[in-house]
Amino acid sequence: MAESSNVRHTGSSVCWSGVKVTAGSKKNPKPILKGAGGEGLSGYVEGGKFCAIMGPSGAGKTTLLNALAGRRLPNFEGTVLVDGKEPDRRRIAFVMQEDVLCPTQTPREALMFSAGLRLPATVSLAEKRKLAGDRERPNYQVMTHFGAISQIAIGGMFGAAQPLLLSFPLEAALFKKEYGVGTYTATTYFAAKTAVEVPKSFLVAALTWLVSYWLIALEGPIILYILALWLMGFAIASTALLLGCLVPNVEVGLQVSPAVLVPQILFAGFFIKSEQIPPFLRWAQYLCSLRYGNNLFALIAFGPQETDSWDNSTRAEAELLLELNQIEPGDWWVNVLVLASIGVAFRLVAIAALSWRAARTA
């Protein structure tokens, strides 16, 4: 059991001793929660402290939490005290790993239902509604907006990459033929392809945000979202072009593409934070266009210039989100520069790879 830094509220201390849970018949009980040597578990958590209960699968972590929360357990033994007194089980709860809730209820309705049945009659309906709102409200606006822009970024990544992965290996055969007879060079071919592709990708980015921006009620100028998605699409398309130059056909390209695109989702900052990535893998995030595109979206939506009008709690959550994802408000130009560099560098490498393959074939 481990403790970490203080939280803002005082909280209640919890003490337990001789906690033991068994299953089966009384003649042949099977212990499912016990301490060393068969003794009951004992412990103490000071109020206002974070506490972690760690152990391998099946060690009894959830069973211990169920016992401390007062859930009905077969053959439970031991004593649990909150602030030195017998606890009121109706006032204790925790979020289970796989909780089961009514699928048609909103989070607020689920909390109101539990509060209405479990809190004592001395707590008024207005207080119950306030408690339910306090539990539901934290970072709702911030997290829903961050989830929405992350989803749009992921969709933009696949939308920019998949068409090129499907079409470019087929175009490569025509390029090799015309390159072999001296019709044009690889540089000329890529310059013409980029000139056609860039305006089209800007139109796709504009249509994407014209549909999504007002539906989500995002903060920040829409033109900045369009430009950020356009630049990210350019970098992703360059990655797809390089991959298309290296694979022999469409089938191989589709098989290899998940290894290039899916890791970018993990490094984008939505599902896991940068600090949770193993150190030996962190270098890969610097080649992931999705990460820098998502950083730009987050800066546009949650930057200081947008959150000044928010309440203190929501603004603090937005600042915490940027901090956890290691996004510095003043570094927007770094993300723009990296995306542009990835787009240009990968296209230059793609030109060299395609020229080499065409010359080798000839």
TrEMBL record:
Signal peptide: none annotated. Pfam families: ABC2_membrane, ABC_tran. It is found in: Membrane. Residues 142-298 form the ABC-2 type transporter transmembrane domain. The chain crosses the membrane at residues 198-216, 222-245, 252-272, 332-356. GO terms for molecular function: ABC-type transporter activity; ATP binding; ATP hydrolysis activity. GO terms for cellular component: membrane. The keyword Transmembrane helix applies. The keyword Transmembrane applies. Keywords: Membrane, Transmembrane, Transmembrane helix, Transport. It comes from the Eukaryota. It is a multi-pass membrane protein. Residues 40-126 form the ABC transporter domain. This is ABC transporter domain-containing protein.
